[in-house]
Amino acid sequence: MDKVLYLAMSGARENMRSQHAHSNNLANVNTTGFKTDLAQARAMPVYGEGMPSRVYAMSERPATDTTSGVLTPTGRELDVAIEGDDGWFAVINANGQEVYTRSGEFAINELNQLVTAGGVPVMGNGGIPITLPAFEKLDIGGDGTITVQPLGEGPEALAVVDRIKLVNPDPGTLFKGPDSFMHSGNPVPLPPANDVKVVSGFLETSNVNSVSELTSIISLSRQYEMQVKMMKTAEENSTAAARILQLQ
User: Fold this and answer.
1) Burial class (CB in 10 A: 0-12, 13-18, 19+), 86
2) Which of 126, 166, 236, 244: CA 20 to 30 A from 66?
3) What is the pTM of this model?
4) Are 182 and 99 in contact (CB under 8 A)?
């Protein structure tokens, strides 16, 4: 009975873990630049006495779907989207690490730094966060170059401030960290990529398929109920066996 209970308990636990991944995806269906976390289950042996065929399914997040979402026009000069599936914006997280995102919903903080919607500084090609002077007008070019018309100056006084650092790592080398940013796992920052192009006045939507995620959540809920029923059955069998032993 203990083995049946263990397998049912393990199955219910892994169902819950997989449920968390799909629920997080569904919760971020409207998050700019969000990338879907993939989930899968693989067979794991049950250690200890017993036949080698005894296994249970372990849920895991093997990778992240990095395909691009849909580009939607906003007309806002600080909204930037990367064209195509390749390329990432370089930003600095709370730990001072260079990490990567596809969310180009930028703003300017009280220090005149270019930051993401979450307040994380955007990295420039110069190796430091981008700081903007007071300006009348700002333009972000297709290669990420930021040009401003200084405050109080005419259109003839345009000045290049910096260039947003864009990177293009090899496929499969980035992974999503607990901070929801993509990490390279290498303490050395990735080099800038000149082949990544951006478009100003657009934002990239999440690539989450809400129908698929909702279907997975319903399926996992049913699997969880089945595991709970197995645990209840194991309890009933154990109780019945104890009553038989009491009669002897």
Assistant:
1) middle
2) 126
3) 0.83
4) yes
Q: How far apart are CA 103 and CA 61, in angstroms?
A: 22
Q: Is 221 helix (H, G, I), strand (E, B) or coil?
A: helix
Q: How many structural domains comprise the chain?
A: 2
User: Quick one: DSSP state of residue 85?
Assistant: S
Q: For the segment 214-241, what is each residue's pLDDT rounded down to a tens digit?
A: 999 999 899 889 888 888 888 788 788 7
Q: Are residues 170 and 229 in the same domain?
A: no
- Residues 145 and 119 placed together within one structural domain of the fold: yes
Domain membership of residue 234 as a residue range: 2-65+208-247
CB 170: neighbour CB atoms within 10 A?
8
Q: Coil, helix or strand for 184?
A: coil
Q: What distances in angstroms separate CA 55 from CA 42, 43, 225, one per listed residue?
A: 10, 6, 20
- The token pair at 228 is 């709970």
What are the pLDDT digits (tens) for 140-163? 999 999 999 998 888 888 899 999
Question: How far is it, in rounded angstroms, from Cα 245 to Cα 241?
Answer: 6
